[in-house]
Every structure is written in structure tokens, then in C-alpha cells.
Amino acid sequence: MDWKRKLREEGYIELEGIRIELSLDNTFMDIDYIPRILVYSEETGRWHVLRNPIPKGRTLEENWDNAVKVLEAIARGEVKPDLGEPKIEKRLTSVLKKLDAL
């Protein structure tokens, strides 16, 4: 199954010690939720929030599509991931490139 479709349908994907999840956040106590991408690293044993901007959609489905588009841009090397930890950013990029090549 295509990784983008699997991510959209199941909400997460895992490969080589990295788990990528789609989530929602209302950090600023807004009524509307904003899309977030969470990355779990087995190496660090921690969750990391991707800080790259994800355009807010009008629907939940559009939010997920926009999040996947950000990950696609990272996989193509057009955007550098911002997780606050360069080592994990590099691993995420590597995993996304491998998924994109499958």
C-alpha cells in the first residue's frame, strides 16, 4: 500500500524505528483544531512534534491531506523537517525517502 494512503487511512506509519502519526492540536484554546505531525523515535524514546507549518484546511480530510503534502515535500528534499533535533530530522528525512522509493 502507498505510504501516503496508509497514513491517511490508518493515521500512522512505521519504518526503521520511526513512527509518524497525524494528530490534531488546539494549543491556543481555539475552537478549531489544527493538524500536527508527531514523530516517535525508538532511538530517543521520545515523541517529537514537526514544527513545519501545515496549512489549515476547511475539513478534517483537507487537514490530513495538507499534512501529508508537507511530508511529501520533505521526502522530495524540498523542505527540511523542523523537529528541534538534527539527528531525528535526518532520520525522518531518510525514512520518508525510503518510503517514497517503495
If you compute it from the alpha carbons, what radius of gyration comes out, rounded to the nearest whole angstrom?
13 Å
Report mean pLDDT, rounded to a whole number: 89
Task: Describe the largest sheet.
Answer: 4 strands, antiparallel
Number of domains: 1
Count of DSSP-assigned helices: 3
Order of helices and strands: HEEEEHH
What spatial form do the alpha-carbon principal axes imply? globular
CA distance, first residue to last residue = 9 Å
Number of strands: 4
Helix content: 25-40%
Any low-confidence stretches, pLDDT <50, length ≥5?
none
Helix/strand-derived category reads alpha+beta
Residues in β-strands, percent: 15-25%
Spatial order of the strands in the main sheet?
A: 1-2-3-4
SSE diagram, text form:
Layout: H1 3-10, E1 12-15, E2 18-25, E3 34-41, E4 46-49, H2 60-75, H3 86-101
Antiparallel strand pairs: 1-2, 2-3, 3-4
Kindly describe this structure:
This protein has 102 residues and is α+β, with helices and mostly antiparallel strands. It is globular and about 35 Å long. Helix 2 packs across helix 3 (86-101). A four-stranded antiparallel beta sheet has the order 1-2-3-4. It has one domain. The chain has helices at residues 3-10, 60-75, 86-101, and strands at 12-15, 18-25, 34-41, 46-49. Helix content is 39%, strand content 24%. Strand 2 and strand 3 form a beta hairpin.
Q: Briefly, what is this?
A:
It contains three helices and four strands, in the order αββββαα. The chain is α+β, with helices and mostly antiparallel strands.
